[in-house]
Amino acid sequence: RSSYSCCYFVLPCCFFDFHGKYSRRQSKKTQYREYLDFVAQVGFVCGFHVEEDCLRIPSTKRVSFVGKSRTYGAAERARIDQQITQFINSRRTCAVATCDRRVGFNHEKHCGDLCTEAGSEPPEDETKTAGTIWMPGFQPREKVEQIRNCASLPRDFVDEVVLNVANLLLNAAPQKSCSDKQGGNMNTWNQGESLSLREVAEHLNKETLKKLKSEYGGLQTLLKNNHQVFEVLNGRVHIRDWRKEKPPSKTKPEVKRRLSAEAFKTRLCWFFIHHPDGCSLPSEACPYAHGTEELR
Length: 296
Description:
This protein has helices at residues 31-45, 77-102, 108-111, 124-128, 155-171, 197-202, 206-213, 218-225, 254-262, 270-274; strands at 8-10, 48-54, 63-70, 195-196, 230-233, 236-239. By secondary structure, it is α+β, with helices and mostly antiparallel strands. Residues 263-293 form the C3H1-type domain.
């Protein structure tokens, strides 16, 4: 609806309608196929010649739609825009009816044919505003989207949080002496204890928590981003033990094996630098560099 010259590409993923989660209406199709048909229908209603394609990507949801040309002339824009408004309103009516049915109220008669085709009349006030707004309450995404997955936080801040949390986990466990630090002795390397995210948060200062709260996922996202050091499972934080990690599969495609090899020892080993017992793996087995001289 942004302009007559607009073209589009869409890769449907999560099952959502205009006003909430998409509700299934056909049991003979898979949920994915039914949703794809709905997304294609949106393109047809908007007056596009809709083309379907399957992308060559490693995903179970890889069917895409492309709209490169219109089925109507530029002079018919007002009529098509009204048709789109009616379609959106028909979907809203169905969404409300589905919600009411879940609490025991039967709206089948009220919903009628609105669920099938864009032929119903929208409320009068919304018909008048069809040419000035896309749909009531619609808010387009900002042109510049703020990155809030902890990736844009200052490196010094992230390093400080990682070190504090790691020390917290290490100090929660009885200290063990390390007799074979370089060899990665299985019996002496201190893996620390596991703590819940709540327990970890209670040991961080208010200023740190306030900065993390403005990020999506907060503390959990920051710890998961630091995959080398931590493992977060079922809401509990563990120090990652690289001795337990599965070795790279020999059956991987050649391209993936090559990429994995190229990433070997491109970053310093956090455990070699900060862990009181050093790294649990010997230098030749660790995917990270034990000192700057090993960096690639």
